TrEMBL record:
Taxonomic lineage: Eukaryota, Viridiplantae, Streptophyta, Embryophyta, Tracheophyta
Protein name per its UniProtKB record: Glycosyltransferase N-terminal domain-containing protein
Keywords: Glycosyltransferase, Transferase
GO molecular function: UDP-glucosyltransferase activity
Organism of origin: Solanum verrucosum
Limits of the Glycosyltransferase N-terminal domain: 4-233
Family affiliation: Belongs to the UDP-glycosyltransferase family.
UniProt-listed SUPFAM superfamilies: UDP-Glycosyltransferase/glycogen phosphorylase
Source organism, top-level taxon: Eukaryota
GO biological process: glycoside biosynthetic process
Record keyword rRNA-binding present: no
Amino acid sequence: MSPGHLIPMVDLAKLLAQHGVIVSIISTPLNTIRFKSGIDSSIKSGLQIRVHELKFPAVQVGLPEGCENMDSLPSRDSIRDFFLAASMLQKPFEELFSDLKPSPCCIISGKNMAWTVDSARKFRVPRIFFDGMGCFSATCTQKLQSSKVHENVSKFESFVVPGLPHRIELTKAQLPENLNPGSPDLVDVRNKMVAAESISDGIIVNTFEELELEYVKEFKKIKSGKVWCIGPVSACNKSESEKAARGKNVSLEQNQCIKWLDLQEPNSVVYASLGSICGLTCSQLVELGLGLEASNRPFLWVLRGGEKSKKFEERIQGRGFLIKGWSPQILVLSHPSVGAFLTHCGWNSTLEGCCSGLPIITCPLFAEQFINEKLITQVLGTGVSVGMEEKSGLVMKREGVKNAIETIFDEGVEGEDRRRKAKEIAKMAKRALEEGGSSYINIETLIHDIMQQSLSSVEASS
Ligand code: UDP
């Protein structure tokens, strides 16, 4: 129930349906509105996707009416209430589930719905966990959890993550909250999620094996083999209209941004987007904006909820385009005018950047984004970091943004090398989902494994 989870899960539903199974998506009314137009054409074309709604008890827990997604919370302090409301969906979910025909043989659930483990046990079906992270960050996280090396260092002192094929250095300040709890308020909620993950019947990961091969192997070892890499899920959106409708409905502004891109030179534009829930402070937004401006490159910047500055808009007119609402991200990334992607390194954006064949400018903000940055800049070699300054507490500086943009467009050997690697990765991503590709085979295996588990549980109960 946040865009970064909802969007790939809807893509996953489409992918599974494309492999011939019946998929029921269970969501809440306002979340359904966000993705319905994106799947309508799939349903019309014959894919067996059914959508069911449960009323979200927002008001019952003290949230404003209509608050059904993390991106509409009045403040961070309401997260606990949000999780409480989500846990109240268990009973209506089970009532709905028992009426579904044909009776489902599996529950696939995101991490925020820990209670689906209990529901799955009640209905004697496997509960598969859909992980929002890649295998690289999941492996790093696990290595830190078991070694605890990060617990003996100060906030900005760097340490090496042990037991990895690459030398990955991080600081405590860069770690996600589950490894570095800033506030104790959500510890119990987080513990429930971790417990649910560890007893789930397998994990679906939105990645493809060729992208992070050594880490997929490592993660499979950690999870005793029950890992299916079936991505990149965004590739199930093939037509322009499907790409445009992904995540939210198409708006006028979206059409205008594509028209603006059409007017730009090939490979010239920096596309800058920091995800669906922008955590930047006002002063950080200013640094990013001034860095983009100083780069002297055309840029398309998704500035959701940012302060408006008339002067800035006047200065960048013609050279910069601001999207103040929702960007049709995968459509933009596939546009020939875009030459680089400046991202906060959320896992979906990281993967979408990899699939687009673009070099990446990394600007991580929170969660496992600093770990994803290491994957891009050190393991894949397709990106450059804006370099968040640690002295003043991980802040972005306009010079850092400008320098990273200059480096990424550099026409020397290193720049060429990054662009070549990025293009190769995009080709591998495309191949992974084609018939016979690694993700294609893994989806077939997943469906087969679920059927096997389902048959054995029917036999056990008869
Ligand atoms: N997204 C989009 N338009 C926007 C912002 C985000 O389509 O204006 C999509 C993006 O393509 C990705 C998801 O929203 O699929 C964001 O997920 P990610 O993991 O990158 O970051 P989060 O928002 O969870 O921090």
